[in-house]
Design brief:
Elements (H helix, E strand, L loop, with lengths): L1 E5 L4 E3 L16 E3 L8 E3 L4 H4 E6 L16
Parallel strand pairs: 2-3
Antiparallel strand pairs: 1-5, 3-4
GO molecular function, one term: NAD+ poly-ADP-ribosyltransferase activity
InterPro entries: Poly(ADP-ribose)pol_cat_dom (IPR012317), RCD1/SRO1-5 (IPR044964)
Protein name: PARP catalytic domain-containing protein
Length: 73
């Protein structure tokens, strides 16, 4: 798993079911479902290389008996 730092910048409101794939103007960097209390975030492809920074890689190894054993899941 890779944990990333994301720069949201100027956000625009995206309505549910929108088919928007690009920012509506050069003034916005990302989209959210609610400007005051966002739960869903969209980082536009044009900003992926400048607004998303990988910070940590998390790896783990399950015990050998964990496969199929619900106690370890």
């Amino acid at each position: 798993m890779v944990l990333c730092r994301v720069i949201m910048g100027n956000m625009e409101l995206l309505r549910p079911g929108t088919q928007q794939f690009h920012p509506s103007s050069e003034d916005v960097d990302s989209g959210v479902d609610d400007l005051e209390n966002p739960r869903h975030y969209v980082i536009w492809n044009v900003n992926m290389n400048t607004h998303i920074y990988p910070e940590f890689v998390v790896s783990f190894k399950l015990p050998s008996g964990a496969r199929g054993n619900k106690h370890f899941l």
